[in-house]
Amino acid sequence: MSFTSPWYYAFLAAVLIIYFSVPSRFRGYLLLFSSYIFYSSFNPKYIAFILTTTIISFFCARKIEQLHDSRAKKSILALAIGVVLGLLGYTKYWNILAKSLQLFPSADILVPLGISFYTFQSLGYLLDVYRGEIKAEKNFGKYALFVSFFPHLLAGPIEASQDFLPQMQKDKKFDLKGLALGCMMIVAGLFKKIVIADRLQPIVAFVFHNPTDHFGPSVALAAILARYQIYCDFSGYTDIALGSALMFGYKLSPNFNRPFFSTSISEYWQRWHMSLTAWIKKYIFYPLITSPFVALGFSGITIINFLILGLWHGPTANFLLYGIIQALLILLDSKTKHIRHRFYRVIKLDQFPVFLNTLTALITFFILIVPPTILFYSNDFETSKILYTNLLSKQWFLNDLSSIFSSYYFRDCLTVASLAIFLMETLDWVQKKKTDLGELIWNRSRFLFFMIVLVALILTLAFGNYKSDGKFIYMQF
After folding, report:
1. Which one of 208, 220, 263, 387 is most buried, by most CB atoms within 10 A?
2. Among 311, 234, 250, 318, which Cα is nearest to 280's?
3. Are residues 118 and 38 in contact, defined by beta-carbon separation less than 8 angstroms?
4. Do residues 275 and 155 lie in contact, with contact meaning Cβ atoms separated by under 8 Å?
5. Is the pTM of this model over 0.90?
């Protein structure tokens, strides 16, 4: 029941109708039951994994709150973290490590969708209770919904317990505005996914799956398109998740804030996958910087954080190298920040802030964001090595692009996706000037609002690419 499937929207509509038809005291349980139905639609066996994580974290958090002895609290916390992380590690990393290290045999292991997301969410809750930042939830059903709420279950955003749990205490009334804004967000997410990401996917796959056949221009183009594919695929999922939740009266955390407008790599990581970076900052960076590990210094701790970020995606050489490169770029950005600003003042560039911001955003995107994408997107290290070698080779001939542009299908995909990207970035720029474009239109004219949503939906369905498998990239993580 993927977000791009008509079955999902039939399911969403049915749950919405029942949700606002039953008394408020039953609505949480309805959402919980619906979330398990949604999750089991991919594989009924997944329920066992999410229930294990939910039960362990719920009862251990209750026990931690009841205990007064700090050692006993730490023991229960360590037990809970060990079990929850152990389940994640076994299902997600055992076979990858078995294949790469060859120290132990691989096994027939089912890897549940979204396990990294709901594991981190549960761990954040446990640590918040242990620190006394929140009270342990006493209602198992409410906590289970916090872990398994179907809009964010498969690929986030990773919700903070302080943000989500209090929303359950409020009585949810039918809100036409919330329903309408939710619809607009869903259409925007579908537009990003099927009109942009799914149209870029075949071109990117053509280059990345045949690395020895492509050189400078085609590799560079594929890397740029891959970065946009990943962004539109993931942010498209997030928009659909936020829109679906808003229809029920729940506000999820934003995951992206126009990341390609960033003027530095540090700013980029403040705008990209914001819920994960916020989680790592709160539960890993700050504890390390205030512990004996502070001896490693800011640089050492930054590298550890990005190694964990890379490992979260998978224990492969590509992801670990990607994490190290991001850490080094962050450190380089931090060390040279004052020098760059002084240089801009000397050459008077600071007197033209719009030009300066545009220039630094372009440099950040094409020099710092795009090249590491080859590591992130490649299936293995050998593929990425070939692509980097070919990218930097002297064979920079424009006719190398002929393998892409000679295909009518590829030309059609690239034309539609490019126009869609231009429209998306233009709307993002408008959003930067206005606080919320959807609310602005809603407040001006509801008829205009619904007409825009309807036209956008028709155009999305008309220009979407239905030849790809439709899977979301981040669901594998």
Report:
1. 387
2. 311
3. no
4. no
5. yes
